[in-house]
Amino acid sequence: MLRSQFFGNLEQGQVPGHFTLQNSKMLRVHLNGEVLARQGSMVAFQGQMEFDYEGAGGMGKFLKKAVTGEGVPLMRVRGQGLLFVANNADDIHLFYLENDGITVNGTNILAYDPQLQSDIQRVQGAGVAAGGLFNTTLTGTGWVALTAHGTPVMLDCGRAPTFADGQSAIAWSTSLQVGVNKTFKAGALIGRGSGEAMQLAYQGQGFVLVQASEGPPVIGEGGKGGLGGLLSG
């Protein structure tokens, strides 16, 4: 089961209470052990804590991250107390996984429980030249905190064919079949791109969370974007 404010099933008492929104733009973690958070996201803490760089988690994950550009630099925070994290005053949204999974854009990850398993996967039909359509899948039981630039919309893909800009889609159900919808019309520059309008196409029963932005402009990359910023360096 996947719990979220979007589904109306995130009632207190039904989930562990260590992830809490201090406000819409700041996450409060009641830490008694460990948590993984985006590097540089700590804005304050009370108590005793240690902050360490978190590696990719083995050579396989390191290579995937190096090749795809997907993922986010993480830090492992250990200790006891209250940890406050945020990222550029972006809106924060919480998901609680109960033996379930969620696919996310790595750049939108703010924090998650360390017992969750993570992997980098490629969107079907999107090769290396497709603009970096790689995403991070988190599975297991625990909290995930995601950031969104502006208030997002949750779309039910079971109601109608659903398409989203690759830079605006920040999370979706692992049960969905996801492909690439392309158009080469010169006047149809949908989203930020280098001449090819590209959208993600979703089929099946599930949701996709779409933020109200394509993200900040990337300077010096010739307009290239995409999930995870493939080949951006």
What does this structure look like?
- It comes from Actinomadura fulvescens.
- InterPro entries: AIM24, AIM24_sf, Trp_RNA-bd_attenuator-like_dom.
- It holds the Pfam family AIM24.
- This is AIM24 family protein.
- The chain is mainly beta and 233 residues long.
- It has a domain at 2-150: 4-Layer Sandwich (Double-stranded beta-helix).
- The protein is built from 1 helix and 15 strands; from the N terminus they run ββββαβββββββββββ.
- It has one helix at residues 59-68, and strands at residues 2-4, 19-23, 26-38, 42-54, 74-85, 91-104, 109-112, 117-122, 134-148, 153-156, 162-165, 169-173, 177-183, 197-203, 207-210.
- The protein is globular, with a radius of gyration of 17 Å.
